[in-house]
Amino acid sequence: MVKVLGIETSCDDTSVALFDDNQGVVENLVSSQVELHDHFGGVVPELASRAHLVNLLPLVDILLQRQKLTLGDLSGIAVTAGPGLIGALLVGLSTAKALCFAARLPLVGIHHIEGHILANALVEPMVLPAMVLVVSGGHTEVIHMTEVGRYDRLGGTLDDAAGEAFDKSAKLLGLAYPGGPEMDRRAEQGQPGRYHFPRPLLQDSRCLFSFSGLKTAVRLAVEKLSQPFGEQDIADVAYEVQEAITDVLVDRLFRAARERDVRAVYLAGGVAANRRLRQRTAVEAERWQLHFLPPDPEFCTDNAAMIAYAGWCHLQAGRQDDHRLDSFARGAITSWR
Fold it and tell me: Whole-structure pTM over 0.85, yes or no?
């Protein structure tokens, strides 16, 4: 029986999880820092790192105590090595190294994007080959996946990520942090036709994204509104922002899927929880007769369950890292199989 402890500290959520090859995800614990960063309207890296220092080891202790396990009962520890906030990553990686050294356990460093992709396998096995749209506050890219460990990045954003466009638009509207979920909620009451924001690069044949122009258009539209903003004003802007972003994301995903002749499409990352994106993707998947099952919303945001499962996949393939493994703030996903 293989039991893998996962550790995720790439941004502002401290998370630990246990994956068991017989039971799947046994437990996934998350300590949120939303209240800590809400005052600043975004994540403050130094504060995030310090909070991870305070929260991580107690979470590990809680998980092991609940499962009546010791470190020696584990088969290995998987930890996010990057990309992300370098200070936050160092807390998780240093802790994982120390625990592995103390208990003589295998260490596996996981690319954060691979973790998000493999979150799709936590409900049922992925149908491959597949096209995956990775979309979050820091990433917007399309990945062709032929098997676990083989990834081909077809393209990404030239400037801002889709999640950042959601969050910045929410901030312009005075909505609470984090802005993405609030934009999703407000858009439900929005009326079409009042605004038309740009769909950058929509007619471009390349697998590229750009959302900086959209943010500018939103800012100009919001500046024309009377303050305080009316509820319908906010809803109408949120609706059109969501439609503009979703139009581009869905177009790119299915254009790439048709070109590579895949069997399935998947969403990964925080924005994968957006209801409109999930709805539009489901409609297009049915149209093109492609398999699509969205990830559980719990596993769209940063979580250690996806890291633990990814670590299990690496260990099953005979891959592990030594204690020279370093964290990295930036870096594209690469194949390891």
Answer: yes
